[in-house]
């Protein structure tokens, strides 16, 4: 039995995840695969019940499954909680618990949505990028960190906030291998993004990337500073094939890159440990608490994350293609959720978008 842990989370999480679960069930029926779904709480909803955002029970359920489908976590009402119990902490916690150090974020552009992008069609048409984001290191997890009072020269207490941007060579090496292999399966161009003109951690990053590249002579490795990469991504996205970068740069660049495709509501992601154990699939967007319960959120990013799950965790490329093509075809028919809606389109709700995609899959 294929076990899927379903961690819907907060905000729009439950609504979009419900649609993705229907899509997985439909793929199961079509391809004769049996799935068992195990729900668990994560984020603010878990805090309400267990006084912690990542309960042990959730970690257990996730560890005992083949794949995790995650919605999103967070809500403004938890913004005043102490940092250790904030919903976002659960996301970082589960990534660390499952050793999900490699986060693949494809930036796909649907021809049908070229006009939804704020960028010019001739700049973005044909964009096909995978961002390989390191997910368990960097300033996100580095120590020491904190906010503390230090006494300045005049004897007054001044508060300092600090985090540590830190990578070991082992951490850089393992993400480098994932990135080179990803590039190898694509157009064999890898751009490593860093800030080596200023940061020591980036100098090490670059050195290791160059070392590892010797094992992949068929892949062309280039380097770009992160500020330049942010500019190049929207000036000329077609120059990129595979991008590898650290946790914080990858976080920022992937949100930016989502605008190439027109909406943050479209892009999926897969997080892997490459130890043959569980992988986690989630949209790159957040919990959008302002849209919660309104049945207006775009479920496509989560549905495409489910497609990635079928491909990577359950090795069913056909199911992946079917889901992908069904999404494309529904978009081609003119159906749009609010985030990508323009005059003349057919406006649909979250659940209607999900049903349309499921119906397309059934053919
Ligand atoms: C993401 C999100 C998370 C991150 C937040 C919610 C902790 O922005 O998955 O990109 O920064 O990684
Ligand atoms: Mg982010």
Record keyword descriptors for this entry.
single chain; 363 residues; alpha/beta; Isopropylmalate Dehydrogenase; Rossmann fold; ten-stranded mixed beta sheet; two-stranded antiparallel ribbon; 14 strands; 39% helix; binds 3-isopropylmalic acid; binds magnesium ion
Structural class: alpha/beta
Q: Could you say which small molecules are bound to this protein? A: 3-isopropylmalic acid, magnesium ion
The top-level CATH class of the largest domain is Alpha Beta
> Major sheet: size, sense and barrel closure?
10 strands, mixed
> Could you tell me the strand content as a percent range?
15-25%
Question: What is the tally of helical segments?
Answer: 12
Number of domains: 2
Q: Major sheet: order of its strands?
A: 2-1-3-12-11-4-5-10-8-9
Helix content: 25-40%
Question: SSE order, as H and E?
Answer: EHEHHEHEHEEEHEHEHEHEEHHEEH
- What general form does the structure show? globular
Per CATH, the superfamily of the largest domain is: Isopropylmalate Dehydrogenase
pLDDT average, as an integer? 96
Radius of gyration: 21 Å
Quickly give the CATH architecture of the largest domain.
3-Layer(aba) Sandwich
Task: Please give the alpha-carbon distance between the first and last residues.
Answer: 26 Å
Q: Care to count the β-strands? A: 14
Can you tell me the CATH topology of the largest domain? Answer: Isopropylmalate Dehydrogenase
Low-confidence stretches: none
